[in-house]
Amino acid sequence: MMTTLELLAEKPSIPTTTAWYLADLGEARGKQELFTKQSPQRLKVLREHALIESAVSSNRIEGVEVDKSRVGTLIFGKPPFQDRDEEEVSGYRDALRLIHERGANLPISEATIKKLHKLSRGKIWDAGKYKEKDIDIIQTYPDGRSRVRFKTVSAKQTPKAMAELTELWQRGLRERWVHPFALVAALNLDFLCIHPFRDGNGRVSRLLFLLACYHSGLEVGRYISLERLIEENKERYYEVLEQSSQGWHEGKNDPWPTINFLLYTLTQACKEFESRLGQVKSPRGEKTALVEAAIARQSGDFRVSDIQHACPGVSVDLIRTVLKRLKGSEAECLGRGPAAKWSKKRRKKVI
User: Fold this and answer.
1) 73: exposed, middle or buried (C-beta count within 10 Å: 0-12, 13-18, 19+)?
2) Is the pLDDT score of 345 beyond 80?
3) Is the terminal CB of the chain with fewer CB neighbours within 10 Å at N or C?
4) Which residue has the higher pLDDT, 37 or 173?
């Protein structure tokens, strides 16, 4: 809550970059209703794909992965779990569904945060319970060395800190002493600094980010996975969190690196959503468009498995069909067999 208190006390001047992001998000929020009145079938595919990507990406950031062939069954079915990782991905799906179904009617409260933790952690013994022991955030290096990156709020002080955080959030929305989208990001940063649970804080922070967006009138996370966009910039995500947590306990931290990162993530989601629905003509198929977009995002050589990684829930047969259609015009195959590398075809410059 130290970031939120700092913003409240100082009535901050907004950095220029932040102001640009806020202006873009305000414009996107204004267009939101127009876009969501378009093709129901296209929106349905986007919702389903975002649900899959969010559950997979948020867990994968924390090192939790499941077999690609099981993803669709885990998200849209109720299969017996083969391991603990499957249980956590399925639980995260349940938490996402709760947020999407209730939206801004689901209050940001301690009870809600504990419920999101309980859902996303499954049947682990302390699901939905605050930590009982003090926990530091440790960074481990490849050579085995480690260091304390951040000392979180003590277990004893955690209930009080969480009560203050949720109360400040409500005050901030009512009194509007900072832009709602900036408040969304500040809430996320403070939650991670408090670190209220023994494990699962990162995943709950991303669920809380999604829910806070609903409360601020932005529903893009229903159609575009915010978790996937964060995962694509994971190194930067951890970097800005470390920058913004320095001096947090003393109320002297610089929150703007993290705030700007999260606002940037939202603007990218809005742009992607608009590009999906801003087309006048009907596309060949939304899943085909998702594959094409994943191919376009590749920065170097890639394999079919890389596109499957970026499009969980899309069949490998469809991915190969799209690549075959693009072969020669927009993509080229650099080898033979299922594991062959592909590359986006470089366009010749016209002089």
Assistant:
1) middle
2) no
3) C
4) 173
Tokens of 300: 């170097």
**Concatenated DSSP letters for 258-312?**
HHHHHHHHHHHHHHHHHHHH--SSPPS-HHHHHHHHHHHH--S-B-HHHHHHHST
Give the number of other Cβ atoms within 10 Å of residue 301's Cβ.
12
Burial of 238 (0-12, 13-18, 19+ CB in 10 A): middle
Distance from C-alpha of 162 to C-alpha of 170, rounded to nearest angstrom: 13
Q: Identity (one letter) of the amino acid at 148?
A: V
Residue among 110, 62, 111, 108 at smallest CA distance from 88:
62
Joined together, the tokens standing for residue 166 give 């949720």
Domain ranges of the chain: 2-277, 286-344
Residue in the block written with tokens 């992607």: 272
CATH classification (class only), 2-277: mainly alpha
- The yes-or-no answer to whether 2-277 and 286-344 have a common fold is no
Q: How far is CA 10 from CA 147, 168, 247, 258, 288, in A?
A: 33, 15, 16, 18, 49
Question: Is the pLDDT score of 163 beyond 70?
Answer: yes
* 197 token code pair: 């649970």
End-to-end CA distance of the chain: 56
Query: Which amino acid, 59?
Result: N
286-344: CATH, from 2.40.30, 2.60.40, 1.10.10, 2.40.128: 1.10.10
Task: pLDDT band for 268, please (50, 70, 90 cuts).
Answer: very high
How many C-beta neighbours within 10 Å does residue 9 have? Answer: 10
Q: Which long-range contacts (CB under 8 A, 24 or more apart) does 344-349 make?
A: 344/295, 344/296, 344/298
Q: Which residues of 129-138 are buried (b: 16+ CB within 10 A; e: fewer)?
A: ebbeeebebe
Residue recorded with tokens 């499954």: 122
Torsion angle (degrees, nearest 10) of CA 181, 95, 122, 231: -50
pLDDT in tens, 16-25: 999 999 999 9
Tokens (6 digits) for 218: 């932005």
Instruction: List all residues 6 or more positions away from 223 whose beta carbon is below 8 Å from its beta carbon.
Output: 43, 46, 47, 50, 273, 276
